[in-house]
Design brief:
Layout lengths: L16 H8 L6 E4 L6 H8 L6 E6 L5 H10 L3 E6 L2 H10 L4 E7 L4 H4 L26 H7 L2 H12 L4 H11 L5 H11 L13 H12 L1 H15 E11 L2 H16 L18 E3 L9 H6 L7 E7 L2
Parallel strand pairs: 1-2, 1-4, 2-3, 4-5
Antiparallel strand pairs: 5-7, 6-7
Helix pairs in contact: 4-11, 7-8, 7-10, 8-9, 11-12
């Protein structure tokens, strides 16, 4: 059971806050959906633009966000709802029920709130139980993956989701030293598996493996693939979709999705003329990903890898 922790003003610094506000530009009377509510930094900022006239739908799979949502609900006169669940499933259900939105935000990855609580097992900087579940009631945790997946599967996960150069060596060492119960034990094994010269200058040696495990535990890329079309289905004409990603796999997936929505046509490239009749649905604006300023990175180093992409429904 998670400890009861009251929210504080420093729980979450919303990344690319000004850029998200400009891109989504919520107005009174509109419906805003924050698919990754977390500590509510972005949602609170967006709700303030509704001036009490409109609706905020917050989604999160982590039940510990409830006190943060209550703080938001008390601070806004707009209608506010919190829906618990993995965002792709909730968005699909909302879309199927005919719910429409004017602005939708996905702030991907692990939240500062989760990283800063060692008992959740997300951080390689503190010794804690191997967990990494965004939804603590989910069956699969990092402990099961590390101790039960075969060596080849582990190496594939580290390579594919963490882009780890030494994936095979690390997987081999893990297979030899199992069982693992705590993050500190795993960190030491990762460090010992990487040649000494490679341990310096590329960030923490365990960073990529921990990222890969977290993605696997929470099916983050699968959830994103399912969520994007569901979000587009919910958008009203001229509705705005904004996605913040923190690593290249997510950003590449979002970029390709937006390009496909802009293109419209699904015919094979060798067809001389379009026969599918599909029309463009979104316009990416701007074409390139928006990155945090040097000033923001100085204030919040966790923003350094953030990339924001925005699509506008063509209507």
């Amino acid at each position: 059971m998670l400890p009861s922790v009251l929210p504080t003003e420093t729980d979450h610094v919303p990344v690319l806050a000004d850029e998200v506000l400009a891109a989504l530009d919520p107005r009174p009377g509109e419906t805003v959906v924050d698919c990754t509510f977390g500590a509510g930094g972005h949602a609170t900022m967006l709700a303030s633009r509704l001036h009490g006239d409109g609706k905020v739908i917050a989604i999160d799979r982590d039940p510990s966000v409830a006190p943060y949502f209550e703080r938001l609900r008390r601070s806004t006169a707009a209608k506010a709802r919190l829906l618990h669940g993995e965002f792709s499933a909730v968005l699909t259900q909302l879309s199927e029920n005919g719910v429409e939105a004017d602005a939708i935000l996905l702030d991907l990855g692990v939240s500062s709130m989760q990283l800063d609580r060692p008992e959740r097992g997300f951080s390689y900087a503190a010794d804690a139980p191997l967990d990494m579940r965004m939804d603590p009631s989910a069956e699969l945790s990092a402990r099961e993956i590390v101790n039960e997946y075969d060596e080849r599967t582990l190496a594939d996960i580290f390579k594919r989701y963490g882009e780890e150069r030494f994936a095979r060596q690390i997987a081999r060492a893990i297979a030899k030293q199992r069982p693992f119960e705590r993050t500190g034990q795993l960190v030491e094994t990762i460090k010992a598996s990487i040649p000494a010269p490679a341990r310096f200058g590329e960030g923490h040696p365990a960073k990529r493996v921990f990222q890969a495990l977290r993605i696997e535990v929470n099916d983050e890329l699968g959830a994103l693939e399912r969520a994007l079309p569901a979000a587009v289905d919910m958008l009203r004409p001229r509705g705005r979709l904004a996605v913040i990603s923190f690593h290249s796999l997510e950003d590449r997936l979002v970029k390709r999705f937006l390009r496909a929505q802009e293109h419209g046509c699904t015919c094979p490239p060798d067809f001389p003329v379009c026969v599918c009749g599909s029309q463009p649905i979104l316009r990416a604006t701007p074409r390139r990903a928006i990155r945090p300023s040097a000033a923001e990175i100085a204030r919040n180093p966790r923003a350094q890898s953030a990339r924001l992409r925005v699509g506008v429904q063509l209507g």
